[in-house]
Amino acid sequence: MDYKFKKILVGFDNSRASQVALDKALQTCKAFGSDLYVVNVKTAKSTQDDFSAIVNEKALPYKVTVHYMERRGTVSKEIAGAERDLGADLIFMGAHGKKGFQPYWIGSNAGRVVSASSCPVITVQEDATNMNFLDIILPLDDSMETRQKVPYAVVMAKGFNATIHILAVSKDKSEETKRLITAYSRQAEIYFDERNVKYTLELRQGNDVPQACIDYAIEKKAGLIMMMTGTESANWFMGTYAQQLINHSPVPICAIHSRDMLLAGAGGY
Fold first, then answer.
1. pLDDT (mean) for 76-101
2. Distance between CA 213 and CA 227 in Å, rounded?
């Protein structure tokens, strides 16, 4: 697979979480040779600060082409609008820290951006500074849609020469569920073998799935968890679960929509 992200967008308000998101976005741009589009949305409560000098200074060591822009309106709508206008294929957003609400617009809007966007969104906590994308958690449950994120995991792994840690996981302990998640995991293994991607595999049943993903990511010292939004089974990341995971996972989350057809089916599933 030779797909590479060409235009990466990051929402930036100079909060700590957005600073870390900017850093991860710059790392990703360097890995893929992408341009970075930095969007600051001016709301009714915003100051009139221009953060372009801060952004350009942070970008210098990465030698990445940066396009800084300001938009005015509702943050989630403007970020999603910028994605459409630019044809961006990956978004980075800062998320709430576990210590509570941050007095900036980024954290409160990360979930809304995930819902409104068409391309993948990576949400980043302020305490993810020292994490990298060399180890990626790929949870696979018993839904058909869970496998749509496999090609994106390969794209990230290729860009960072990363190891993908497949987590075959389900709250259900039944043998039928075990059969399904084992079969899906085996398909992923074949897909990775064909593309020379490093991976490991573990099966865990009978656990709260979002927490199991976080625990496994911490165990593997991973820097990214892949997830689908709105399609994986009801005990997965739907509704408030998605928001909770985005807001509380110490590990960055890459959220992919089932409506994102850019790579869907690329695995031949």
1. 82
2. 10
| CA nearest neighbour of 195 among 268, 123, 133, 130 | 268
Is residue 143 scored above 60 in pLDDT? yes
235: pLDDT confidence band, cut at 50, 70 and 90?
very low
Q: Which residue has the higher pLDDT, 190 or 127?
A: 190
DSSP3 helix / strand / coil % (the chain, rounded to 5): 40, 25, 35
How far the first Cα of the chain sits from its last, in Å, is 15
60: burial class by Cβ within 10 Å (0-12, 13-18, 19+)? Answer: exposed
Residues 6+ apart with CB under 8 A from 57: none
Domains of the chain: 7-124 (3.40.50.620), 135-257 (3.40.50.620)
> Of the candidates 151, 104, 162, which has an alpha carbon nearest to the alpha carbon of residue 263?
151
CA distances from 116 to 37, 39, 45 (A): 18, 16, 22
Is beta strand 66-72 parallel, antiparallel or unpaired with respect to 90-94?
Answer: unpaired
Predicted TM-score (pTM) of this structure: 0.89
Q: Which helix (H) or strand (E) holds 19?
A: helix 16-32
Q: How far is CA 4 from CA 12, 30, 49, 72, 117, in A?
A: 23, 11, 33, 30, 19
Helix (H, G, I), strand (E, B) or coil at 210: helix
91: left (phi over 0), alpha (psi -120 to 50) or beta: beta
The two tokens of residue 255 are 């959220």
- In this prediction, residue 239 has a pLDDT band, given cuts at 50, 70 and 90, of very low
Closest CA to 255 of 234, 233, 225: 225
